[in-house]
């Protein structure tokens, strides 16, 4: 099975990097990434004042970014 890595960034710095995860295909990795975003959303929104940029990147075994989920809070 293909390997995928999930990297979570607060601002510009990676705050969490997962071990390589096995999924049967990109679609399954996408689905798992959406679940991860959902599970982390409360913590992300609670801390947007301190860190207004947040993203989750999913990369393949070669390091190529396949998906990117972003949250940005701006006061206008």
Shape: elongated
| Main sheet overview | 5 strands, antiparallel
Helical region count?
A: 1
Strand-residue proportion:
35-45%
Number of strands: 5
The stretches of 5 or more residues where confidence is low (pLDDT under 50) are: none
Percent in helix = 25-40%
Over all CA atoms, what is the radius of gyration? 13 Å
Nearest-integer average pLDDT: 87
Q: How far do the termini sit from each other? A: 45 Å
- Quaternary organization: single chain
H/E element order = EEEHEE
Structural class comes to: alpha+beta
Give a quick rundown of the structure:
This protein has one helix spanning 26-46, and strands at residues 3-10, 13-17, 21-22, 53-60, 65-72.
How does this model look, in words?
With 76 residues, this protein is of the alpha+beta class. Helices cover 28% and strands 41% of the residues. It is built from one helix and five strands; from the N terminus they run βββαββ. Strands 1, 2, 3, 4 and 5 form a five-stranded antiparallel β-sheet that branches. A hairpin with a 2-residue loop joins strand 1 and strand 2. The chain is elongated, with a radius of gyration of 13 Å. The chain starts with a strand and ends with a strand. The model has no long low-confidence stretch (mean pLDDT 87).
Walk me through the topology:
Elements: E1 3-10, E2 13-17, E3 21-22, H1 26-46, E4 53-60, E5 65-72
Antiparallel strand pairs: 1-2, 1-3, 1-4, 4-5
